[in-house]
Design brief:
Order of helices and strands: HHHHHHHHHHHHHHHHHHHHHHHHHHH
Strand content: under 5%
Oligomer: single chain
Number of helices: 27
Structural class: mainly alpha
Number of strands: 0
Length: 471
């Protein structure tokens, strides 16, 4: 039946094209109605025969010179051929005969934007809003929102969408869009008021509940957000984005079990995504279920093998279990993807330290120091590694370099003091400790962790006591 209908329509357009050619050639009894010209122009336009479509429009306007409809059709074709000023002139003429045709304003807007005149487009659409109501007014507001977006007047975009919803609370396009723009502009309070009004009128509007929840989440009111997401899910049990956001809200308040349940529902309802598996892995990680965390991180890696962070996360689960060789494999993979992320080198160094392979560890810590000489972390790790390997003289040299490179961070004077003490140079160690304390007493805890045995020395304890009293 459908094919038969298409054949009839195809035959009809062919007969119309024949009449059109007869008219062009000036044959007798060749006549085309205004509506048929509209169909003919649309046919050529759909076939990407723009030149022929413009010829048909010109001939149509010769026959019907006062037809606003045909003028608008031709203006649309002129826009397609980038004749923007010519199109505007024609649209101005069309407005004299029919100033309430929606397409008139849409096409004029396109022309102004193409000519880089967004202010003109805004004025035009604002004036047009007074001429229309209902669905047509909503369409103009969407058009105006797009212009404001291009013009980077983002709060105005929100205002347009708010007006659409005040007129039509069930408008799905506006409900979808305003959620993004609420987050982008930070206008969560207005969004909460707006969506509460919509819900009062339309209590089974799942999108309105979702947007209300998202606005609460914008204020970090995660419990309220979860309640609203649950209403959205009751109304639409397959609302995967509600489960996704609810999982995030549970994660924020550290309810990891509930977060996992919500996120697993997302996997049931939609195409698997690496970020969902990663989030589930994170929840298990925080629950210290490292095997399950690793399982989900590996699922994420399968979907996104170029994300080096995922290999790092897998490595940290192995490190928590003391599986240093397995962790090293994952971190080496991460480094192959992103060679210059220092955190991976630090973690690799830590793994080798636990395996007592200090030379290997020092290579990675040295790489960090070379890449970021002004950062404290790399120097601290390298010095601790050298001390662990009993390379005290080299460690002492590194404290000097670290102090200079980090613009005189006092922590390295504390380390220097401890290393001198390890070398049996107690008098020098006390002098360095006094210098360190004069700069910062807060960093004594660093010394305690670095070399706790030093705290048992009576002279060290006395010196610390003096500075604590002075403070």
């Amino acid at each position: 039946m459908f094919d038969h209908q298409k054949e009839e329509e195809g035959g009809d357009i062919q007969e119309l094209i024949l009449r059109y050619h007869n008219l062009k050639q000036g044959r007798a009894n060749a006549y085309i109605e205004e509506d048929d010209f509209e169909r003919l122009i649309a046919h050529y336009d759909e076939q990407d025969e723009i030149g022929e479509a413009i010829q048909a429009a010109n001939l149509a306007l010769d026959q019907y010179p006062f037809s606003a409809l045909l003028m608008i059709k031709k203006a649309d074709l002129l826009l397609a051929t980038r004749k923007y000023k010519e199109a505007l002139l024609l649209l101005d003429t069309a407005a004299l005969y029919d100033h309430k045709d929606m397409n008139l304003f849409i096409l004029k807007t396109d022309a102004y934007l193409a000519l880089d005149q967004p202010e003109q487009a805004i004025v035009l659409l604002q004036e047009a809003l007074h001429l229309f109501e209902g669905a047509e007014r909503s369409e103009l507001l969407f058009e105006l929102a797009d212009v404001y977006d291009d013009h980077e007047a983002f709060d105005k975009v929100f205002d347009c969408l708010k007006l659409v919803l005040e007129d039509d609370p069930m408008n799905e396009e506006a409900l979808y869009k305003i959620c993004f723009w609420t987050d982008f502009t930070g206008r969560n309070e207005e969004s909460i008021r707006l969506h509460n009004r919509i819900i009062d009128e339309q209590p089974y509007n799942a999108l309105a509940w979702f947007n209300l929840a998202a606005a609460y989440q914008g204020f970090k009111l995660h419990e309220k957000a979860i309640d609203a997401y649950q209403y959205a899910i009751v109304i639409d049990e397959k609302f995967d984005y509600a489960y996704r956001n609810m999982g995030d809200a549970y994660l924020r308040i550290r309810k990891y079990k509930e977060a996992i349940e919500a996120l697993e529902k997302v996997l049931e309802l939609s195409r698997p995504e690496d970020v969902i598996y990663e989030a589930i892995g994170h929840c298990y990680h925080r629950m210290k279920n490292f095997a399950q965390a690793r399982f989900h991180y590996k699922k994420a890696v399968h979907l996104n093998p170029d994300d080096s962070r995922l290999y790092q996360k897998i490595a940290t689960t192995y490190m928590q279990e003391g599986q240093w060789q397995q962790a090293i494999k994952q971190l080496e993979h991460a480094l192959r993807i992103h060679k210059h992320i220092n955190e991976y080198s630090i973690l690799l160094g830590e793994c080798y330290m636990h395996l007592e392979l200090y030379k290997d560890a020092a290579i990675y810590f040295g790489t960090v120091v070379k890449n970021k000489p002004k950062q404290i972390g790399g120097w601290q790790s390298l010095i601790k590694c050298l001390v662990a390997n009993k390379q005290f003289e080299m460690a002492l040299e590194r404290t000097e370099l670290a102090y200079v490179s980090t613009s005189g961070k006092a922590v390295f004077i504390f380390y220097r003091s401890a290393i001198l003490y390890m070398l049996g140079k107690h008098a020098e160690a006390l002098l360095q400790l006094e210098m360190a304390l004069s700069k910062s007493t807060k960093l004594v805890s660093k010394l305690t962790k670095f070399y706790p045995e030093m705290m048992q020395d009576a002279k060290v304890a006395s010196l610390l006591s003096v500075y604590k009293k002075g403070k």
